[in-house]
Amino acid sequence: MPAFALAVIGPLAQGRYMDTDWLEDFLALLDCGGFSRAAEKRAVSQPSFSRRIRSLEDWVGATLIDRSTHTIRLTAAGERFRLVAEETLRRLQLGREEARAVAKATSETLRFASTHVLSLTYFPAWLRTLENAEPMSATVELTADNMVACERLMIEGRAQFLLCHHHEAASTRLGSDFTSLRLGEDVLLPVAAPGVVADGNIADAPQLCFTADSGMGRILAAAWAAAGREPPSQPIFASHLASVLTAMARDGRGIAWTALSLVRDDLEVGRLVRAGSPGDDVPIEIRLWRPRARQTPAAETLWSRILRAYPRTA
Q: What residues form DSSP beta bridges with 110?
C-alpha cells in the first residue's frame, strides 16, 4: 500500500505531516514482537525503523511503546492508538479500492485470504461450484497463510473475503466491522500412524502441536479450555501448518490434531488411524468472512451469489 501524508492542524503540530508507512511500521512492530524483526520485515535498517516509530510518537504527541521492558508492550495510549491505526489503514485501503473500481468498471479482482488447509481442501471445489452456477467475470486472487496473517489482510483491507475454520469458543480479531457466513462443517481430531499409540493412551505418545499463530491451534486451545482439558505440556514438534503436522504424523513421529478434511483419504487407506475416541473430536465450522462496509461491485455481486447458495448465519 503506498504511503499517504496526513496533515495535522493544531497548536502542537501545525505544519507537520504523518506518513502512513509509520502506521504500518507500528503494526509490524506489534506483530513481530521486536524492533529487529520488524525492521527486517519492513526492509529498513533498525536505526531507521526506530526513528520512524519515534516520529509516529512525536506526531501523536504520546509515548506508544513501553521501552522499560525487554518485550514489546504498549502503553495505555498505544493500546488506544492501535485500534485507530488498524482502522485507518483498512479504510484507506478500502477507499483506494473503491476509487479503482470506478476507474475500471470492466476489470476487477476478487481477493480472498484463506488458511492453508482450506485453500487446499475446500476452496477449489467451492469456487468451482459457484462457477457452475454462473461463470466468474472477475479475476480471483487467493492468498493462503496462517490465521493471524489472514486476519491482518482483512483488517488492512487487502483481502475482501476470508475463508477459515471457526469455533464459537475461539475469538478472532475480526470485530463488529465484519460479518460471516457458515459454509460447511469439519472436525479436528487426533491422528497417528498405525502402532504409535499403545493401548489407546494418547497422553503418553509424542505430541505434534500447533503454534500460537495457527487458527486451528487457537480453536483447539479454546475448545480444550472450555472443556477443562489441559493442552500437551511438552510437544516434541510445533508448526502453524496442519499439513506439516499431518506429514510428521504419517512419518510415525507422534500424534497430530488435524482437520478431517485433510486426512480423510489417509484414514480410509490406513496411512493414519484415529488416535482417540469420538469424544475427543472437536466439531468446527467452515466460515467466510467479509467487511460489513460495502465493497467493490464485483465483490458485492459475488456475495449476493453466495447468499443465494447458502443459508445465512452471522
A: 140
